[in-house]
Each structure stands twice: as structure tokens, then as C-alpha cells.
Amino acid sequence: MCASRGFTLIELLVVMVIIACLAGLAVISTGVAGPSRELNNEAERLAGLIGVLADEAVLDNREYGLRLERDRYQVLFYDEGRGRWQPLDDGSRQLPEWAQLDFELEGEPLVLPSSGDGREEGEENPAPQLLILSSGELSPFRLELGERRKDGLKLQLSSDGFRLPRVEVLVGKRPGR
């Protein structure tokens, strides 16, 4: 009898499935899904942050706010003793260089400054654009988080002032309104 000298079809299929699984894991781990996934994560993080701040505002009886710039945002709280807004922590959340924020407050578009616009070194932090009050209310807003490129993904967070924002994909929306 002669022994067969090749691989069976099942052995080849098993090897192909293993290679496909490893390739899929490599794609996921290196982030080839890229900016759209990262943008969605950032939008979910921001919506979650607003929700947590709304809860904290009610529980702590403290006013919070978000200071927004085109490429970053920072959490502030109102210090009644000093009578001014103070950063909650030392830093602001920097967006990836390919992402930007656009913001409407009560239906009116606001021009967000770029990082450091109009601020000198050591100058006080300006007031936040988005208020989160101890009564549980928010400033009615619409925030667009998107890629800077023309055909890039755009996500929206919005609130009527009473409900917490959810992340929604904007379809057919051009940047710059």
C-alpha cells in the first residue's frame, strides 16, 4: 500500500480558519478600524462624562461645566468661595489631531476657540459654554464631534436641557454646517 503524501481538505480548511482568526485579531489589535472607532469611543466617553457630571451635580449640590475648544474640552466647577470657575483637574481632554468639535447652544452656533486662542499664560480659565446645574438641568445644546476631512464621520450629542445626551451618527451632514 502506498501512503498518501498530501494534506486532506479538512486539514487545509482548519489551517485557513486559524490564519483568518489570527489576521482578524491583528486587525483589531492594531486599530485598523481606525478613526471611526476612536471617534465613536470619544463621543461615548463625552456623553458618559456629561451623565456622570449631571449625577454629581445633584448629589454634591455643585455646578459643573464643560469648557469646549475645537480640539479639546475641560471639566470645570463653580467655586462659590472664590466666585469663579475652576478646573476640576489639572488637564483637559485632547482630541486626536484629525478630530474637531462644533457646538450649538440653545440653537445658536458658537465659534469655538482653537487651543490657546485669546488666552495669555497664567490668565484665568474662561467660563464654560455647557452648564450642568445642581438642579439636574443642562444647557440645551447640540455638539458635533467629527473628523476634519470633508467626507469624514460626524457624530452628534444633543440635549433639550432635561435629558442626557446620546450619541447619534449624522448622515449626509457636511462639516461647517
Concise description?
Keywords: Cell inner membrane, Cell membrane, Membrane, Methylation, Transmembrane, Transmembrane helix. 28% of the residues lie in helices and 28% in strands.
Short key terms for the protein model shown above:
elongated, alpha+beta, 28% helix, five-stranded antiparallel β-sheet, 177 residues
Order of helices and strands: HHEEEEEEEEEE
Regions with pLDDT < 50 over 5+ consecutive residues?
Answer: none
Strand content: 25-35%
Derived structural class: alpha+beta
Query: What gross morphology would you assign?
Result: elongated
Distance between the termini: 77 Å
Average predicted local confidence, pLDDT: 83
State the major sheet.
5 strands, antiparallel
* Topology, number of strands: 10
Overall helicity: 25-40%
Number of helices: 2
Radius of gyration: 23 Å
Give an account of the 3D structure.
The chain is of the alpha+beta class. Helix content is 28%, strand content 28%. It has helices spanning 9-30, 34-60, and strands at residues 64-69, 72-79, 84-87, 93-94, 99-105, 108-110, 130-132, 141-147, 154-159, 167-169. Strands 1, 2, 3, 4 and 7 form a 5-stranded antiparallel β-sheet that branches. Strands 6-5-8-9-10 form a 5-stranded antiparallel β-sheet, covered by helices on one side. The longest helix is centred in the first third of the chain and has 27 residues, at 34-60.
